[in-house]
Structure formats: structure tokens, C-alpha cells
Write a structure and sequence with these properties.
This protein is α+β, with helices and mostly antiparallel strands and 532 residues long. The chain folds into three domains: 302 residues, BirA Bifunctional Protein, domain 2, CATH 3.30.930; 96 residues, D-Maltodextrin-Binding Protein, domain 2, CATH 3.40.190; 86 residues, D-Maltodextrin-Binding Protein, domain 2, CATH 3.40.190.10. The strands form four sheets. A nine-stranded mixed sheet has the order 1-5-6-12-11-10-7-9-8.
């Protein structure tokens, strides 16, 4: 019999002091919202799935879905904005007055197993419906800053962008719908190597490869205007709008909390105007997100502009001592083994010396001689985990490991070493695509194999092998393998051959989103030193 005391993954019981602290955070935020003239709304914990499936479908693939008594598909609340838009459209269809609402309620999202992420979290936020214009945008951003000051203090940065910048650039690019989807994913993840290798036209290449790194102080607005030039007047008009917002926030002495990221692409495609996120030094992901969504309510039958934001109360609660602030050394998670040796050679070539790294013995945490860089030696999968959770700023890891994980980090540079390739291989002379039987594929990389065959529209069975995967087709456990190939000598020695190359692999630098924003100067200095 299973233990009834064990909780589902991603949930927790909150007791005693921690419970008191969480309620205190919620109450402080509620006080800010009430003083701002907002009234509370509570929406159901579950709704018809169609309510949430109004933006990008991918944003809601992690929803908890079930069927109701009428067999209609339902979903637990994945966010609060869409349900509130539904409620306002139903209750205030012909009412054109301003509506200001706040909420504090739980949202439910099924994260990957063993990711260390909570599947049930508390959001506290506001929705301001019925007004538009720069003054309203400044008002809501000011409210967000004041709310964060109440529960965090001054250790945070709020980054702003405008959804119209990317949308207008895409509109003029001439890219196909499939290419738009791919490019938006690359820009959102700051995947610089992928953008550099993408088949852009000469006119588009410079803009789309530079856009992800246009973040920082208000100086990036001028940089963007110079980059866009006279050919992108619509994008430049949004830059001018952001400058106006910055000026008005500066008049309130709030500019110290503000930064910009013009490569900010949201998971929700209902945003039409400003979009913003906030980061703090003790959390590896954003603690606040929001934006303007002037067309969302029309999907529910009410034509009204709206703007709002949500604060992750649990992220604020679990906010640790600041280790991502700019006064801390850069912390790098480095994959042990061959990449470790290649990285050491790169450091030495760049004038970065570390006697501890050269003679580490059994030490796992090391520093460079100038104390500017801390280095953690770890397995490849762990490098990604440490970077995603923000305990390391940067990670040096192979692209093979990156492709196998769907994680929240930026892929900012190709190191140019550790080169090999993913390939489909098997017994010599065999046609893997012939016949009508379902093929069996053995691999250490099930996600890579699954995605490769899904793109071909082929159904396969995957067997995960952790050791010498080449043995699987020899013993006829599998029809073929998906594996890393460097010279092909192991395949040849065992009577196997490459059927098809999948993609090239090399070592990459990944970055935690909060780290790269809060430590931009140090990250940039490091990348300049290693000439990336």
C-alpha cells in the first residue's frame, strides 16, 4: 500500500514561520493594491480549457487537464489574466468605465519531473482594464515597483520592452510562419549561435542577431534606433514610446530600478504593448511578469484595453541571500572531462589563470587567481540544473546536453570546441525507413531521437541506453541508434554505419536569465576576455 503521507511532486505543506511569512507577503501586496484603488476578484480554480488556449498553445501544454461531467475539456488555472478577462467580458460587457482588480490565488502548471520547480504557486497581481496610453503604463509600472519594494526591498531590476518591436520587425522580415516561430524561440532564449547560423537575408541578419543582446540601461534604446535606421519606422516609434516611459519614471526617481530588454519575447502572444519582468538577486528566475493586452478581452466579446502584472509570491518567499548581484564574482559551472581541459586551455589563452583548476585534486569549487571567477566542476546534466536554478551564472556544456533538456536558460555563445555530430546509425546496408513495422531506436538521448523522428512524421519506439549504445543493433535490440559521432571509428569497428547526420554539436556557454541581466557588465567583461 502506498504511503498516504507522501505529497504529489511539486507541492508542499507550508507550516509555522514559513506560513506566517507567506501570508505577510500576500498581505503587504494586498495593501499596496487596495491603497491603489483596486478591488479583489477570485476566479474558479478550474475553467474550460478553451479559456486558457487563446494564446500560444505551447504555453499551456503543461496545464493540468481533465474532462468534466459533460466530457468537455477542463483545466486547472494556469494563469489569472485569461480568467479575469473572461469574467469582465461576461459581467461588464456594456460597461466602459475603468475597472481595477487585484487577485491573490494559486496557479497550477505541471513542470518536468525532478526539476525542483513547484507545480502549485501563488500569484498576487492586478489587472487594470479600460485605459490605455503612456500615463496608464507608467502608473502600472510604478505600482509594480512599489509592490516589489514592499516585499523585497531595493534589490531588484524591472526590465521593460514592447511587444510591437519584435512584431513589427517580423512583419517587415518576409519570414514564413514556420521561420517566425523558430526565430522567436531563438530570440526568446537568446540563442546567439542558432541565430548566427539561421538563413537570414542580409538585411535581416544584423538586426535579428543583435536584438537578443540589446538589454541593459536606457542607452540600448539609442543603440536600437541606430540599428533599425529609417527602414523600420514602426519599431522606432515603439523605442520612442519606451523612452517616454523612462523619462516619466525618472521624474519619480524610479529609473534606478529600470532596465530594458528589446529581445524580450513573451510566452503569451496576446501582449500588444509594453511587456515587463522583474528579477532579484536571490532568485534565478523572474519574480514578476506583466504587460499590455489590448485585444485579449475582445476574444471573450468585450472590446477594451487592459494592462496587468503578476508577482510570484512563492519566489519572493524563497528569495535567498543575493548571489546574483553585480558585486559578486561570476560563477561558472564547467562540465568535467574533455570540455574541462579545453576550457582550461581557453582560459590560459585569454590570460585567465587558475592554479586551483590546474591542480584541483578532489576540490569541486575553485577560483581563478584574481578571485573574479568561481568555478564549479560538475557533470553535464548538472551544469544545466545549476544554471537554470541560478546558483551558477554561466555554464560550459555541450549542445547535445542542451538539446536533451527543455530548460529555462539563455544559450549565448558557441565555444568552437568539443565538435562532433548527432547521427542516426545502424548495421551496414540496412534501410531504416523501409517496411511497415514500427522501428525501435536505442539512444542516450531520447528527446533528441523523439524530436528527430517527429519532424519526419514517423512513429518509433525508444529504448534508453546509458552505456555503449552501439551494442543495441548488434544484438538486434534496436533497429538503429541515435548517438554522438566524432570520427565514426567505433561504428566502423562494430560493423555499423551512419545512415543520416542529424545536426552538428559543439560546446556552448549558457546563462541564467537573472544573472545575465543583473550581472551584465561582468558577464560582458568575461565574454570579451575569452573573445566570444
Amino acid at each position: 500500500m502506498k504511503k498516504l503521507t507522501v505529497l504529489p511532486e511539486g507541492t508542499e505543506d507550508i507550516l509555522f514561520e514559513k506560513c506566517i511569512s507567506k501570508r505577510a507577503i500576500e498581505n503587504k501586496l494586498e495593501n499596496v493594491f487596495v491603497e491603489g484603488g483596486f478591488s479583489e476578484i477570485i476566479t474558479p480554480s478550474f475553467e474550460y480549457y478553451d479559456v486558457f488556449n487563446i494564446g500560444k498553445l505551447e504555453a499551456f501544454e503543461n496545464a493540468y487537464k481533465f474532462t468534466g461531467s459533460t466530457n468537455r475539456l477542463m483545466s486547472l488555472r494556469t494563469d489569472s489574466t485569461a480568467p479575469i478577462a473572461r469574467a469582465i467580458s461576461a459581467r461588464f460587457k456594456n460597461n466602459n468605465t475603468e475597472i481595477k482588480l487585484y487577485y491573490k490565488q494559486n496557479v497550477f502548471r505541471a513542470n518536468a519531473s525532478y526539476s525542483g520547480k513547484m507545480n502549485e504557486t501563488t500569484q498576487c497581481g492586478v489587472e487594470c482594464i479600460g485605459k490605455t496610453g503612456v500615463d496608464n503604463d507608467v502608473y502600472v509600472i510604478t505600482l509594480a515597483i512599489n509592490a516589489l519594494k514592499e516585499v523585497i526591498g531595493n534589490d531588484f531590476k524591472l526590465e521593460i520592452s514592447h511587444a510591437g518591436i519584435f512584431n513589427s520587425l517580423i512583419k517587415q522580415s518576409g519570414l514564413s510562419d514556420d521561420d517566425v516561430k523558430t526565430v522567436s524561440e531563438y530570440i526568446a532564449s537568446k540563442n546567439i549561435p542558432a541565430l548566427n547560423n539561421f538563413n537570414f537575408s542580409d538585411e535581416n541578419k544584423k538586426i535579428f542577431t543583435m536584438l537578443p543582446m540589446l538589454f541593459g540601461g536606457n542607452d540600448v534604446l539609442n543603440t536600437a534606433k541606430n540599428l533599425f535606421g529609417d527602414n523600420y519606422s514602426e519599431a522606432n516609434s515603439h523605442i520612442t514610446y519606451l523612452n517616454e516611459i523612462y523619462s516619466k519614471l525618472s521624474e519619480q526617481n524610479l529609473h534606478e530600478y529600470i532596465m530594458f530588454d528589446l529581445g524580450l519575447v513573451s510566452d503569451f502572444d496576446y501582449y500588444t504593448g509594453i511587456i515587463f519582468r522583474a528579477y532579484t538577486g536571490g532568485c534565478g528566475h523572474c519574480v514578476l511578469s506583466g504587460g499590455r493586452y489590448d485585444t485579449l478581452l475582445s476574444k471573450f466579446g468585450k472590446d477594451a484595453p487592459a494592462l496587468g502584472f503578476a508577482i510570484d509570491a512563492d519566489a519572493v518567499l524563497n528569495n535567498k541571500e543575493s548571489y546574483l548581484s553585480n558585486d559578486k564574482p561570476i560563477r561558472i559551472a564547467l562540465t568535467k572531462g574533455r570540455l574541462e581541459k579545453d576550457t582550461l586551455a581557453l582560459f590560459e589563452k585569454s590570460g585567465i589563470s587558475s592554479e586551483e583548476l590546474k591542480n584541483k585534486g578532489r576540490k569541486l569549487m575553485l577560483t581563478t587567481d584574481d578571485k573574479k571567477i568561481e568555478i564549479l566542476i560538475a557533470k553535464a546534466n548538472d551544469v544545466i540544473t545549476y544554471v537554470e536554478h541560478g546558483v551558477c551564472d554561466l555554464g560550459f556544456v555541450g549542445r547535445d546536453t542542451i538539446m536533451e533538456h527543455d530548460c529555462n536558460f539563455y544559450e549565448i555563445a558557441d565555444l568552437g570546441f568539443g565538435k562532433c555530430r548527432f547521427a542516426l546509425a545502424g548495421k551496414k546496408g540496412k534501410d531504416i525507413y523501409s517496411g511497415f513495422d514500427k522501428k525501435v531506436i536505442a539512444t542516450k538521448y531520447p528527446s533528441v531521437a523523439k524530436n528527430f523522428f517527429a519532424d519526419k512524421g514517423l512513429d518509433i519506439e525508444i529504448i534508453k541506453i546509458d552505456g555503449s549504445v552501439e551494442v543495441a543493433p548488434i544484438l538486434e535490440l534496436a533497429d538503429a541508434i541515435v548517438d554522438l559521432v566524432e570520427t565514426g571509428s567505433t561504428l566502423k569497428a562494430n560493423g555499423l554505419e551512419v545512415y543520416e547526420d542529424i545536426c552538428d554539436i559543439s560546446a556552448r556557454i549558457i546563462a541564467n536569465p537573472a544573472s545575465i541581466k543583473l550581472k551584465k557588465s561582468k558577464v560582458t567583461e568575461f565574454l570579451d576576455r575569452v573573445k566570444i
